[in-house]
Every structure is written in structure tokens, then in C-alpha cells.
Specification:
With 291 residues, the chain is of the alpha/beta class. Helices cover 35% and strands 25% of the residues. The strands form three sheets. It has a nine-stranded mixed β-sheet with strand order 5-4-1-6-11-8-12-10-9, sandwiched between helices. It has a two-stranded antiparallel sheet with strand order 2-3. It is globular and about 60 Å long. 1-O-phosphono-alpha-D-glucopyranose (G1P) binds next to strand 11.
């Protein structure tokens, strides 16, 4: 059974829901407080000792590579100005072992995964979708760490899930499961974005996965539906052969792919900030009296 060493972050989406900002700035570079969302995602991986992160980018998203690269002139300047904490912040952006691969066609999530295949081959990998930020505060075990531990114990692919209600169920992949043991669910079927009536349960798939080494090979064999192949089809195949587990997230989750979710993430990160937390709190209290 392989140890989890690699992670894939798909970052080539067009980000049309955030136009016009995403015309020139890739969506993963949108900032929550002072940090691009993709850096939060990379930081989640430090809890599992991942050795290599593969970021799948679109052809003109060089700014993501720049963010994870070194900027010697800036760092030298911060050092000579004795701005040590800012120097540490700048330096931290190039401490990740990141490889980039270009997705030429915006052909979906499975297309992005296949672009990363030469780096992963038949090894297990973590998959983290950038539209969701997960924050594990107050002693909560980070979701990705929990998934990695379940994978390493069972050798089965494992996905993160949360309960949703009403027509929210139609926004996500949906799981059917029969047994639940110690917080681990045995998944028996998957439906992508079902109607409320079709849904198998109230459990939605969240954008964190640890997938076993066979998944890339299964993706390669899939028949396209229209022009696309779907990760959900592989997950369903795994589920039907008893090889897919799920676990409920305990982290705080922000849907930063949605405008309101993005604002919530910014407000809550501002409240948690040492630098501006107090004044943000006072401002919000004051504002609440006026609205
Ligand atoms: C993708 C997956 C879906 C999952 C969701 C989580 O959908 O296809 O199964 O529930 O991510 O964010 P997308 O949001 O790309 O439409």
C-alpha cells in the first residue's frame, strides 16, 4: 500500500462567475484577505507531508507560477529594510514543491486530472478543488489529513462529504451509503448533481479526495459523454465495487467559488486576523445597527 506523496490542484477553470476580475486574473489568485485562495489550499497539504503538488493551469496563468516562485529583489529589499516578518511571508510562498502542467482545453475536472497523469502515474494522490477553503481551527483534524489516514489504513479511495438540505443537494455530487463505522461511510453509489427527488442521501461530495493508484488508469479507459469524461463515473465504478469510502468534514468550509461564500470567507478571515480582527469586529457591530 503506497503512502500518499502527491496532490493535484486543478486551477485552469475560466472563472466566469467572477467576471470581470477573472478576465486577466486567474480565479485561484483571488485573494481572501491578503492571500490567494490557491495558497490556502497548498497550506492545507502541509498537514499530510505531501512531497509534490501538481497544479493544473490554463495556458495564460503565469501569475500563479510567479506567486509560487522566488522574487529575489523583493526579499533582498525586505531584508535590508529589516522587515523580517514580511520577508518570512514572501519567502513562505516558494516553500512548496509545486510542478505546473498546462490544460490546453477547458475540458473539465477529469481532463485536468489526466493532464497531471505523467506526474502521478499509478500512485495514489490527493485532489483538492480550489473553490472550497477548509479551515481546521480549535484542534479539529484537517479534512485532508483525515482522508489520508483513512486511505493509508484501508488502501481505498476516500472522499469528503457534508450534509446539505433542500435543493442544495443538486449543486453537488451526491453519495449513497449503507454502513457507517467510526465516522467512515462505505459508499455504494454516486450521482452527479441529482434532482431533489433522485438524491440518494443528504450527503454532498466536497472538493477533497484521496484517490487510489488505479484511478488514473480508470479515467483513461472511460468513454466520453459528449466531449467530456467525468470523475464521477470512476467514483461510481469504485463505489459499486466496494472500493470507495467517505468521511464527514469537521473543518469550517467556505465556498469561495460563489460570490456570497467569497465575501463570508473574507469577513471571517478578517475577524480572525491579529492585525485587523478587532477593528473588523467593531465595524461589523456598528454596521449591524444601521442595517
Ligand atoms: C465538482 C464535482 C462534484 C462536487 C463538487 C464539490 O463539481 O463534480 O461532484 O460535489 O465539485 O465542490 P463542480 O463544483 O466543479 O461543478
Amino acid at each position: 500500500m503506497g503512502k500518499l506523496k502527491k496532490a493535484i490542484i486543478p486551477a485552469a477553470g475560466l472563472g466566469t462567475r467572477f467576471l470581470p476580475i477573472t478576465k486577466a486574473i486567474p480565479k485561484p489568485m483571488l485573494s481572501v484577505l491578503d492571500k490567494p485562495t490557491i495558497q490556502y489550499i497548498a497550506e492545507e497539504l502541509t498537514s499530510v507531508g505531501i512531497e509534490e503538488i501538481i497544479v493544473v493551469v490554463s495556458p495564460d496563468s503565469g501569475v500563479i507560477e510567479k506567486h509560487f516562485g522566488e522574487c529575489e529583489s523583493l526579499e533582498q529589499r525586505l531584508l535590508s529594510d529589516k522587515k523580517h516578518s514580511l520577508y518570512e511571508i514572501a519567502k513562505a510562498t516558494h516553500q512548496f514543491n509545486v510542478k505546473f502542467v498546462v490544460q490546453e482545453q477547458p475540458n473539465g475536472l477529469a481532463g485536468a486530472l489526466l493532464c497531471a497523469e505523467p506526474f502521478v502515474k499509478d500512485e495514489p494522490f490527493a485532489l483538492l478543488l480550489g473553490d472550497e477553503l477548509l479551515v481546521a481551527d480549535n484542534g479539529v483534524k484537517p479534512c485532508i489529513k483525515n482522508l489520508a489516514e483513512i486511505y493509508e489504513k484501508t488502501s481505498k479511495s476516500v472522499i469528503a462529504t457534508m450534509e446539505v438540505f433542500g435543493d442544495e443537494v443538486s449543486k453537488y455530487g451526491n453519495i449513497g451509503f449503507d454502513v457507517e463505522d467510526g465516522g467512515i461511510m462505505q459508499v455504494n453509489a454516486i450521482l452527479e448533481k441529482p434532482s431533489v427527488n433522485e438524491a440518494l442521501s443528504n450527503n454532498a461530495i466536497i472538493g477533497r479526495y484521496v484517490l487510489s493508484g488505479e484511478v488514473m488508469g480508470m479515467l483513461k479507459k472511460l468513454k466520453p459523454k459528449g466531449n467530456e469524461i467525468y470523475l464521477t463515473d470512476v467514483l461510481d465504478e469504485l463505489a459499486k465495487s466496494g472500493k470507495l469510502l467517505a468521511s464527514v468534514i469537521e473543518d469550517d468550509r467556505y465556498d469561495v467559488g460563489d460570490k456570497f461564500g467569497y465575501i463570508k470567507a473574507n469577513v471571517e478571515m478578517a475577524l480572525k486576523s491579529k492585525e485587523i480582527g478587532q477593528e473588523t469586529k467593531e465595524y461589523i457591530k456598528e454596521l449591524a445597527k444601521r442595517i
